[in-house]
Design a protein that fits this description.
The chain has a five-stranded antiparallel β-sheet with strand order 4-3-2-1-5. Strands 6-8-7 form a three-stranded antiparallel β-sheet, covered by helices on one side. The protein has three domains: about 160 residues, no CATH class; about 90 residues, Roll (SH3 type barrels), CATH 2.30.30.60; about 80 residues, Alpha-Beta Plaits. It has ten helices and eight strands. The chain is about 55% helix and about 15% strand.
Length: about 350
């Protein structure tokens, strides 16, 4: 940063104090403090009042976040000018200048991370389920922002202190290869977690069934693992590398969270199928856990070996209710069939002995 232009601009004022470097430095730093205070007043009472009249909250947050970096920039620039005016040795001047520029880099790096996070949050709130920016992908973009800004800040600090980064980059490459081989499983989980957050095959609160048979409610989606809470209140932690390479059935997915329940029942040959259909429809209509829309249906599926196989199809509000509603429907079907003398057949086998072995009674 070239401070000579600022010194030339302040020279008419500083000339009144003659050849007094300490007093000139104090005046320059004091002017920076006054200017920083004016900026704070302007942003807080001037611009702040204007942005508060708008319907959007984004401009309010941007104004509030920018106040700190601007004030610190003015103060640090004033400190650089004061340092330039002091009659210090070259080594002390270089060290002081590097410290002030490093602090300035840190202030603006924090501001960039915060402002990008605020904008990403605003975009995710307005995002549609199929858009790139949505609540599920927000952690991914936040982490990418931190990595990029941190890398740029470290590079800028190295340049400020005149440190050659060639050796550091070579060392970092060798260390990265070693870490990659040592932690390949962890890295696989991290990359799979990024892809899961970006693709969003499931979200927190969904009921999923894994290829291995586990069924539960998703309670946490992290960078390394996903957690499921089963119906037995047992938490299962699955590495994201497995979740990203297995078949997952999302029972809460689709256009709505409703879950289709299938109740299979067989009646004896000779039963009145119209009566069976009416009873099943009435049972579904009387059950409060069954949704009215879509409407329940009864399907005659199969001529079985010993029964006429029917299936009651109905919808429930949440996959979590599957066990309870199925229990209620099965109990009602059994009671109603018994009351209406409709037989539910079961497998029967008759054994005929053609001839008794010799000596047997």
């Amino acid at each position: 940063m070239d401070t000579n232009a600022i010194i030339d601009f302040l020279q008419p004022l500083l000339g009144y104090f003659g050849d007094r470097p300490v007093l000139q430095a104090a005046i320059a730093f004091g002017l920076a403090l006054i200017f920083a205070k004016l900026i704070a007043i302007f942003l807080g009472h001037g611009i702040g009042r204007l942005v508060r009249r708008t319907d959007s909250r984004l401009d309010d947050e941007v104004t509030a976040l920018s106040q700190g970096p601007l004030i610190w920039t003015v103060i640090l620039v004033g400190a650089l000018v004061a340092l330039r005016l002091l009659d210090l040795p070259d080594a002390a001047h270089r060290i002081g200048r590097a410290i002030l520029l490093s602090a300035l880099t840190l202030a603006w790096s924090v501001f960039v991370v915060r402002i990008v996070r605020t904008m990403l949050l605003a975009l995710s709130r307005r995002g549609r389920p199929d858009s790139v920016f949505r609540p599920q992908t927000l952690p991914l973009f936040n982490n990418v922002t931190i990595v990029i800004v941190l890398g740029a800040a470290v590079y800028a600090v190295f340049q400020i202190w005149n440190i050659d980064m060639t050796a550091w980059l070579a060392s970092a490459g060798i260390i990265g290869i070693a870490i990659g081989f040592a932690a390949k499983d962890t890295l696989a989980n991290l990359f799979s977690g990024v892809f899961i957050l970006a693709d969003a095959p499931y979200k927190i609160g969904n009921y999923v069934v894994l290829e291995s048979g586990e069924r539960g409610k998703v309670t946490h989606i992290g960078i390394r693992s996903t957690r499921l809470l089963t119906r037995d209140d047992v938490e299962v932690t699955i590495p994201n590398a497995i979740m990203g390479n297995t078949r997952i059935i999302n029972q809460s997915g689709g256009p709505h969270e409703k879950f289709r329940l299938r109740v299979k029942v067989g009646v004896a040959y000779g039963s009145d199928i119209d009566q069976v259909r009416t009873i099943l429809m009435q049972i579904a209509a009387d059950e409060p856990g069954v949704c009215d829309l879509p409407e329940p249906r009864v399907r005659f599926r199969l001529f079985g070996a010993s029964s006429l196989d029917f299936e009651l199809l109905c919808w429930i509000d949440n996959p979590e209710l599957r066990g309870r509603v199925l229990d209620t429907l099965n109990c009602s079907i059994y009671k109603q069939f018994a009351a209406q003398a409709i037989e539910i057949p079961y497998s029967k086998h008759d054994v005929f002995i053609k001839e008794m072995p010799p000596g047997a009674r």
